[in-house]
C-alpha cells in the first residue's frame, strides 16, 4: 500500500475548506500552506486530524514559489503526492483507482479534470491534467499557470487511471487581477518559452487588449518550440477574434482558415470560421464547416477545447444555415439535435418551431397544383 499525501496552497478559502478536506480524506496525509488568510480557513483546516497546516507569506507573490514551499513540507517517505486547490473536489474512490495503476516505476499520473460547469449544471471545459506525481525529482516552474517540471534522469513514466475525476468549482468573486502582471513577468523571464507566450496573448484577449493579443500571439507562432498544432491553432483563433473586434473581418477570415488547416482534428477552428461566415451570410460555407466539425467525434483531452463546440452550437448553427438556404427539412433535423443537447433552451425551441413551420409551408406549396400550367 502506497503512502499518499495531498498538498495545496490557499488563502481565504473558508467557504471551501471543510468540503475540500472531505474530498481529499482518502489520502494518508494532507499538507496545506496558508499564504496569509484573514478568515477562518486555518481554523477550519486544523479541525481535521489528517491535515497539517503551515503559514508563510510569499513576497513577491509567485505561484511556483508557493507550491514548491508546500511541496517541501510533504513527508519524505510519501510515495505519491497529489497537488490540488481548495476549490477542487475528487469523486469518491480516487485513491483505489490511483493505486491500481501506479507501479514502482511510475512518476506521474494523468487524469480527467472538469475545469468549469455551465449554468445548467452540465460540464463545460474538460481535459486531462497530471498534478499527481512521485515525491522526488519534481519542481514547479513559472510565476503563474505554473507547471510541474521533471528534474530526474531519463523520461517520466505516466499512468492513466481511467476513473479518477477531479472537479473545479471556482469562486467567481475571487480576483484574477494578478494573472496578467505575473504572465508578463513569466514572458520576460523566459521569452523563448512558447507556453508562456501563448498564455500571455490569451490573457490580453480576455482583457480586451486586442492589439497586444495579436502582437503577442504572432510572437508565439514564430517561436521555434511552438510546434503543438492545437495551441498554434488556438493562437490563430485568438488573433482572429481580436481582429474581428477591430473590424478587420477579412484578416480574421484568413487567420481562421489557417487555424482549420493547422488543427483539422479540432472542432473549434471550424466553428469559429462558421460563425464568421454566418455573420457575413455565407450560408453554404457555414454549413460545410458545421458538418466538418460534426465529423470530429473525439473530444481532445488537452485544455484546448471549448464546451460550446461539444454542445448545441454546431447543430444550431447548421440548422440556421439550412433555413437560410431554403432547406427546412435539414434545418429541422439539425435543430432537433441541438435541442437534445439543451432541452430547456427556450430559444432553441422557438427556432425549431420556426423551421417546422417553414417545412410545412414548403410541403404545402409542393402539393398545390400550378394553376397556370394548363
Structural commentary:
With 374 residues, this protein is α/β, with parallel strands linked by helices. It folds into 3 domains: 4-168, Alpha-Beta Complex (Spore Coat Polysaccharide Biosynthesis Protein SpsA, Chain A); 175-264, Serine Threonine Protein Phosphatase 5, Tetratricopeptide repeat (Alpha Horseshoe); 276-366, Tetratricopeptide repeat domain (Serine Threonine Protein Phosphatase 5, Tetratricopeptide repeat). It has 14 helices and 11 strands. The chain has helices at residues 17-24, 41-46, 63-71, 94-101, 179-189, 194-206, 210-222, 229-245, 249-262, 267-279, 283-294, 313-324, 328-341, 346-367, and strands at 4-10, 29-34, 51-55, 80-83, 88-90, 108-114, 126-134, 138-141, 147-150, 158-159, 165-168. Strands 1, 2, 3, 4, 5, 6, 7, 10 and 11 form a 9-stranded mixed β-sheet that branches. Strands 8-9 form a two-stranded antiparallel sheet. Helix 6 runs parallel beside helix 8 (229-245), helix 10 (267-279) runs antiparallel to helix 11 and helix 13 packs antiparallel against helix 14 (346-367). The protein is globular.
